[in-house]
From TrEMBL:
Homodimer. Interacts with lysosomal protein GLMP (via lumenal domain); the interaction starts while both proteins are still in the endoplasmic reticulum and is required for stabilization of MFSD1 in lysosomes but has no direct effect on its targeting to lysosomes or transporter activity. This is Lysosomal dipeptide transporter MFSD1. It is a multi-pass membrane protein. The chain crosses the membrane at residues 12-29, 82-100, 106-125, 137-161, 167-187, 223-242, 254-275, 287-305, 311-334, 346-369, 389-410. Belongs to the major facilitator superfamily. Gene3D superfamilies: MFS general substrate transporter like domains. Keywords: Lysosome, Membrane, Transmembrane, Transmembrane helix, Transport. Pfam families: MFS_1.
Length: 428
């Protein structure tokens, strides 16, 4: 697939991008769904906070492990094959999870879901890199995440409502069908596109490229920023935000779900706005630092945990989502300090941080809370106090601060690839 004259993307490229964005919405839905149905899962599988954390984090374990292999596969086999395989695997996993009778079966289902959806995002970034002008990379990546966040919004109030009316199990059966349909549709839309099919390469060349990305010191500041910022956000938004709101602030399930939807909406809008602003101003680092500072500041409010109006907490949840979106610039930051042909690998290295952080922190937060839990329960579900949440969230705050500090060490490229610029200067 190539750009048409004047750098305008072909109609085929635009349609493929739209279909893959639709598939990406399911990835976001699966990522944040446990937060809205945490109480249902606790009742269905009789879980402690630690085991509930493990169940939610299983998605992130597999997602983390698959990021670098996905980058390699996208750069070699191409997006077409792995998106189809991802759709099939996530279909099986969602069915398994929805029909699970035990916690072990649910863990298997979540593992398969994480494995299946883990390929979609890096494939989408590769499609952007192949088919669109590099100066629009952050804007289009932000647009992709904006659309993907429709899935996160659906995992808020709509999922809470559907779980009450239809049952959470039926919801995941329906998601399984949608996963298979979109994977198959992506395969069909990319038929005949050589670029989407990948290229045959020597394994030594692949490993050499991967090692060059890893050895590049400029790759690691974006990766660490992603680790701290995205990891802390996914930990909170993907599981613990709902229990925090209902048990500390005393909100109803529907009001708490509204907070989640606002946070997801804020994140979606932030991805679009900050990506556009970054490309428009030709700046990555300064925008990331400002957004990250706001994000860390909001964490101090949750740690305080004092009484506030629902209007204020909803506004803060929206702002938290918006400011967190700054971490999406880390993908462009990593891509622009590595060779363009290694876009899949470089973005996957940066992206692995956030999912690794969430994979570790979600269960550890629960474990810390269990250590200080008083033993109180309500309707068969454990109840935690503000002090319990403070103790668990202390780790999350440390990681958020780490992400902010790492942002100061990112190389500003003015939205240009350093390797391409070096080659142009050498040619001149």
């Amino acid at each position: 697939m190539k750009l048409s004259a004047g750098g305008t993307p072909t109609r085929q490229a635009t349609i493929i991008f739209a279909v893959v964005m639709a598939a990406y919405t399911l990835s976001f839905f699966q990522r944040f769904a446990p937060a809205s149905i945490a109480q249902d899962l606790s009742l269905a599988f009789d879980t402690t906070a630690a085991s509930l954390g493990v169940l939610a984090a299983t998605y992130f374990y597999v997602y983390t492990l698959m990021q670098v292999p996905t980058g390699v596969l996208v750069d070699t086999l191409g997006p077409r094959r792995i998106i189809l395989l991802g759709g099939i695997v996530s279909c099986v996993g969602s069915l398994w999870f929805g029909l699970a009778d035990t916690l072990t079966q649910a863990l298997i289902g979540r593992t398969l879901v994480g494995l299946g959806v883990s390929v979609t995002f890096i494939a989408m970034l590769k499609i952007i890199a192949l088919s669109f002008d590099e100066r629009r990379f952050a804007s289009l990546a932000g647009a992709g995440v904006f659309v993907g966040n429709i899935g996160a919004v659906l995992a808020g109030v709509p999922l809470a409502y559907a779980a009450t009316e239809l049952g959470w199990r039926n919801v995941f059966v329906a998601v399984a069908v949608a996963s298979l349909v979109l994977g198959t549709l992506s395969w069909g839309m990319m038929r005949g596109s050589a670029a989407m099919g990948g290229v045959k390469v020597d394994r030594t060349v692949v490993m050499g490229g991967l090692l060059s990305v890893i050895r590049n010191r400029l790759t690691w500041a974006p990766a660490l920023a992603n680790l701290g910022l995205a990891g802390s956000y996914f930990t909170f938004a993907g599981l613990w935000a709902m229990p925090y709101l209902t048990q500390v602030h005393g909100y109803s399930r529907s009001l708490a779900a509204t907070h989640l939807s606002l946070m997801y909406a804020g994140f979606a809008i932030g991805c679009l706005v900050l990506g556009f602003l970054s490309d428009k101003l030709h700046r990555r680092k300064s925008i990331l630092i400002v957004a990250s500072t706001v994000y860390v500041a909001i964490w101090t409010v949750w740690m305080w945990g004092g009484a506030m109006s629902a209007t204020l907490t909803m506004a803060l949840f929206f702002l938290m989502g918006f400011s967190t979106a700054g971490f999406t610039l880390t993908w462009a930051c990593a891509k622009e300090v590595n060779p363009p042909q290694l876009a899949g690998m470089s973005t996957s290295i940066a992206n692995v941080g956030g999912f690794f952080g969430a994979a570790v922190m979600q269960p550890v937060v629960g474990l810390l809370m269990d250590q200080v839990w008083s033993g109180a329960t309500m309707n068969g579900v454990r109840v935690y106090t503000l002090d319990d949440f403070r103790f668990g969230f202390s780790l999350v705050v440390v990681m958020a601060v780490l992400g902010l500090v790492a942002a100061f060490f990112i190389r500003e490229t003015a939205c240009r690839n350093l390797w391409v610029d070096a080659q142009l200067k050498a040619g001149a």
